[in-house]
Amino acid sequence: MELTADLIMPDRTALIIVDVQNDYCHPEGALAAGGSDVSGVSEMMPRLHGLIAAARAQEVPVIYIQTFHEKATDSPAWASRSGRGSMGVCRRGSWGAEFYEVAPLPEEIVVNKHRYSAFIHTRLDSVLRSLQIETLIMTGVSTNVCVESTARDGFMLDYHIVLVGDACASYSQAAHEMTLENMKGYFGVVASAVEVEANWNIWNQTPLQKML
After folding, report:
1. Interval 149-191: pLDDT, tens
2. What are the helix (H) ranges across 68-203?
3. d(Cα 66, Cα 97) in Å, to the nearest integer?
4. Could you list the active site residues?
5. Measuring CA to CA, which residue among 211, 179, 163 is closest to residue 8?
6. Contacts of 150 (CB under 8 A, 6+ apart)
7. Which helix (H) or strand (E) holds 169?
């Protein structure tokens, strides 16, 4: 499947921003302190900011996914996922759980999650159905974990998926590239931020301009 303007019609599309939070993205956040390479985040942030601005200009809903962890959601299986070091990440009410260099407008939607996928035990699907959304434009961190998990579940729920490869970041370039290949092969479209914005701009053209 190729990216087309029809696939990302502004009134049928949502921009999904996954886990752009201090603990995952900030050079002084929990993951960086634990040795993870967060340099990919700084590289992708200008493109993410451009997409947010473009979405707002096109009146595309911008939905922020924000992870919170707390004792009530720390099941034994979840707590063991990557060692005890993961237990201090994005705790409810902490600086680490706050957004990193993005700020939802008062009318924009924030969906809280407690697992990798933003569809598991959240209101995301209900919000999207209410907005009559058909296509999800996926951005954020990390490409191969929470972004991919959300994109996969979205596809299984019959949403079209557009993964913006240069507006996502991982802590491993190899893992990032692997997800792009997997998404492209089985779950949707992989595109750049420039391609998404260019296809949105087509909707601003007159019928004559579209023909030229």
Report:
1. 999 999 999 999 999 999 999 999 999 999 999 999 999 999 9
2. 76-79, 124-130, 148-156, 173-182, 193-202
3. 8
4. 19, 113, 146
5. 163
6. 16, 18, 65, 116, 117, 118, 119, 138
7. strand 160-169
